[in-house]
Amino acid sequence: MKDLRQFNIQFVGLKEGKHEFNYAIDNKFFEAFNFDDYNSTSIKVSLHFIKKSTLFELTFVAEGTVEVPCDVTNEMYDQEIDSELPLVVKFGPEFNNDNEEILILPHEAYEFNVAQFIYEMIVLAVPNKRVHPKVVDGTMESEALNKLKELEIKEEKTVETTDPRWDKLRNLITEKKT
């Protein structure tokens, strides 16, 4: 985690009030987490940090793009990222991050690293099903889409005949009722 030292916030020397931290996120950031799902990344993260006497209020705001493959055509495209993550930091006897909205730091802490929160916010901002915008508006021309259209079921076939074995079973049920 040496690569992520720039995400350490030393809060001991900060005055009470509002502070802002800005980060430029690229592929090197994700390499530190061994995450390689994005071909290229260009995201600006601003952290609005409000220091109060007993707690900190943090708001992470991420805007930018990540290049990902479309799940339908496998064509690469830039997925827009626009995300916000609020976080409250309190102090207690020991470190605790069980709650996703509240982080508890030990009383003796003098700094903490925000990289994990930025990583999770960005990864969760990318939709589970990634569809190229040209697929959505119908302007995409690709071999995969042409093959899908070719294999599309044109009309459903309905079978009118029933299996005689099922007919015999139905007869057994109706005979028992009478």
List keywords for this structure.
178 residues, two-stranded antiparallel sheet, elongated, 5-stranded mixed β-sheet, alpha+beta, 5 helices
Alpha carbon gap, first and last residue: 77 Å
**C-alpha geometry:** elongated
Rg, rounded, reads 27 Å
Query: What composes the largest sheet?
Result: 5 strands, mixed
Q: Numbering strands along the chain, what is their spatial order in the largest sheet?
A: 2-3-4-5-6
Oligomer: single chain
Number of DSSP helical runs: 5
Helix content: 10-25%
Q: Beta-strand level of the residues, as a percent range? A: 35-45%
Q: Please trace the helix and strand order, writing H or E for each element.
A: EEHEEEEEHHHH
**Uncertain residue segments:** none
Mean pLDDT: 85
Q: Can you count the beta strands?
A: 7
SS-derived structural category = alpha+beta
